[in-house]
Design a protein that fits this description.
Number of helices: 3
Number of domains: 1
Helix content: 10-25%
Number of strands: 6
Strand content: 35-45%
Order of helices and strands: HEHEHEEEE
Distance between the termini: 32 Å
CATH class: Alpha Beta
Radius of gyration: 15 Å
């Protein structure tokens, strides 16, 4: 298995994700070549939780403009992770 910090890039704390907190769903930016199984194993090992389901999608990079030059940001992978009812993940420690 690859290093955990390579597979899990960062948690995503958006309005959409925090609205799904009652459904035990959290989101992460993950490595583009990471599989669902690798994401599940990395999260269970890093945060000591049990993962019920992992759904992944590729987010298309946005077109950006600086002056008169145009460029495109890189595509990235997002993973929606559903936790088991007994698992708990708290990012803020409140």
């Amino acid at each position: 298995m690859r290093a955990l910090h390579y597979i899990i890039r960062r948690p995503l704390l958006s309005e959409k994700v925090t609205g799904q907190a009652d459904k035990k769903v959290v989101a992460f930016e993950v490595a583009r070549d990471a599989s669902k199984i690798e994401v599940k194993q990395a999260l269970e090992k890093a945060f000591d939780i049990k993962v019920k389901d992992v759904k992944t999608l590729i987010v298309a990079g946005k077109m950006k403009r600086v002056g008169r030059n145009f460029g495109k940001r890189n595509n990235w992978k997002k993973a929606y992770v559903t936790l088991t009812p007994e698992s708990k993940m708290d990012f803020f420690g409140v």
